[in-house]
Amino acid sequence: MSYPMSLKVFAVALLFGSSITITNASPIVKIDGSSTVFPITEAVAEDFQKAKRGAVRVTVGIAGTGGGFKKFCRNEIDVINASRPITTGEMEACKQTGVHYIEMPIAFDALTVVVNPKNSWSKTITVSELKKIWEPEAQGKITHWNQINPQWPDKKIKLYGAGADSGTFEYFTEAVVGKAKSSRGDYTASEDDNVLVQGVASDIYALGFFGYAYYIENSKRIHAVAVDNGNGGILPSADSVKNNSYKPLSRPLFIYVNAKSTEKPEVNEFINFYMKNAPELVKEVKYFPLSQKIYDLNIEHLNKKKVGTVFKGTSSNIQLEDILILESSH
């Protein structure tokens, strides 16, 4: 049997105790974080790798926003996908390790409350009803649909939601309960939104929440609930996000780029490619693109290495106009 030359060289090296240095390995752009932002960055990564014809590899993980920031602040990855702005705790963690970051809003999402298609009673739900379901005090007490609204069935409610390391979890709890990470714990939690989709799709008495793209992708298997913030039920859509009527569950999505990593040509090139192609790819994966001004500002901040955040640790109820004003004045 004949062996490839590379294997022969490897075998000879092992025999004589020599070390081998593998050269010409493709440079890698390392990304991790939010499962909500994952579809956007994955789409960009696929197109970028095709454009580079394999000369650069891009890896994209889904550790959740919180899990991703832990890696990011330990200087383990180049870019983090984030479904909320960086928190004060994460700012401090990055400061301790000397990690400076460039903040880039990339899209808007409508965090979507979903039910099983056979659910005929809760097509609209108020924010106060959502709070009644999800607040910590509800654990072990609010267990049936009719406890939320007496007109709803006396059936056990099965809850599905984002895991504690998820930015979606933090944003949802801050927007609905009033405090980030303040939630009942007796629900099926996952960083993988597909697990949540499956749970709601398979149980008539289920209710869950996750990013809009996962809802749209599975809209034949699950139904969105109209959220009533005092002005009647509003369904998530491009229009309700843009006109800010889908309150309080529309939110910006971000990437944060390690400023040191931008010195690597492959990272710099990837971010430029990201901002150039974001408007089209954001729509392709069913999120809502920002204005071209924001993507241009992101490139300007990349070129100037403009580090830091404009959000000061707050995350809920940020409008499109707010982002433009904040970013341009930063």
Quick overview of this protein structure:
This protein is an alpha/beta fold.
Description:
With 330 residues, this protein is of the alpha/beta class. It has 2 domains: 25-108 and 252-329, D-Maltodextrin-Binding Protein, domain 2 (3-Layer(aba) Sandwich); 112-235, Periplasmic binding protein-like II (D-Maltodextrin-Binding Protein, domain 2, 3-Layer(aba) Sandwich). The protein contains 13 helices and 14 strands. A 6-stranded mixed beta sheet has the order 2-1-3-13-4-14. A 5-stranded mixed beta sheet has the order 8-7-9-5-10. A 3-stranded mixed beta sheet has the order 6-11-12. Strand 7, helix 7 and strand 8 form a beta-alpha-beta unit. Helix 3 (64-73) packs parallel to helix 4 (88-97). It starts with a helix and ends with a helix.
CATH T-level topology of the largest domain: D-Maltodextrin-Binding Protein, domain 2
Radius of gyration: 22 Å
**Which class of secondary structure composition applies to the elements?**
alpha/beta
Total tally of structural domains: 2
Helix fraction, binned, reads: 25-40%
Globular, elongated, flat, extended or rod-shaped: what is the shape?
A: elongated
Distance from N terminus to C terminus (CA atoms, Å) equals 65 Å
Strand order of the largest sheet: 2-1-3-13-4-14
CATH top level of the largest domain is Alpha Beta
